Amino acid sequence: MANLYIIATPIGNLGDITLRALETLKSVDLVLCEDTRVTGKLLSHYGISVPKMSYHANSKISKQDKIIDMLREGKNLALVSDAGTPAISDPGVMLIKEAKEALGEDLEVIPIPGASALVSAISVSGVPSPQFTFYGFLPHKKGRETIFKEISESKRTSVFYESPHRILKTLESLNTFLDSNKEVVVARELTKMFEEIVNGSPEEVLNYFKENEEKVRGEFVVIVG
Ligand code: SAM
């Protein structure tokens, strides 16, 4: 019987990791990391010494097969991404799917929950979200307009991740497609030094970032109420 632990790590502030996550990271045979250098910093901050191996979006099938073989041998593995919860707009889904198929009842996939930018942003937004649609990262070109139309017509809250390269373009599009009475929230750099939550109409939020170019940096979650 092997265990594959899916462990959430901090999204900025290194304090945001659970006791159970630290205990599990200490106990496993190997940690699969999106980037071993990023996870190495977290592990050394907590004085944890454990073998690491990279597993990321571009990992080959042969790497995945090697990992599944280790599980077959009964090894206990942990999967982490650079930040937040693995498999949420991060690598992990295919490994979990294939490992479950290959090992069936001989594998336990165990979540060690913790930080996620998605949930953190919703929790501070002040936007009622009894139901929401999460879009991950929006497509760069094809299908973008369709999604903005869908968001503008949706009765649910919409949430998506955005990069500093596209945030202004995206806020321009929201200002074009959304009714002016819709609420937009941009959660930037959550848990970090320049954390900021900006609420307003589509136009207000767009103008805020246009007028404060130094804030068009870092990591963003966008919420449309
Ligand atoms: N799996 C991660 C999670 O559970 O939060 C998300 C990984 S995804 C590759 C990275 C994106 O999440 C960033 O581009 C940004 O949109 C969002 N994000 C991650 N950390 C963030 C933070 N501290 N503040 C705001 N957004 C963040």
Provide a compact summary of the structure.
The chain has 225 residues and is of the alpha/beta class. 36% of the residues lie in helices and 22% in strands. It folds into 2 domains: 111 residues, 3-Layer(aba) Sandwich (Cobalt-precorrin-4 Transmethylase, domain 1); 108 residues, Tetrapyrrole methylase, C-terminal domain (Methyltransferase, Cobalt-precorrin-4 Transmethylase, Domain 2), CATH 3.30.950.10.
Written description of the protein model:
The chain has 225 residues and is an alpha/beta fold. It has eight helices and ten strands. The mean pLDDT is 97. Residues 11-12, 81, 83-85, 88-90, 116-118, 161-163, 187, 189-192, 219-221 line the site of S-adenosylmethionine.
Show the helix and strand layout:
Elements: E1 2-7, H1 19-27, E2 30-33, H2 36-45, E3 52-54, H3 61-72, E4 77-80, H4 93-103, E5 107-112, H5 117-125, E6 132-137, H6 144-153, E7 157-162, H7 167-177, E8 184-188, E9 196-200, H8 202-211, E10 220-224
Parallel strand pairs: 1-4, 1-5, 2-3, 2-4, 6-7
Antiparallel strand pairs: 7-10, 8-9, 8-10
Helix pairs in contact: 3-4, 7-8
Bound molecules: S-adenosylmethionine (SAM).
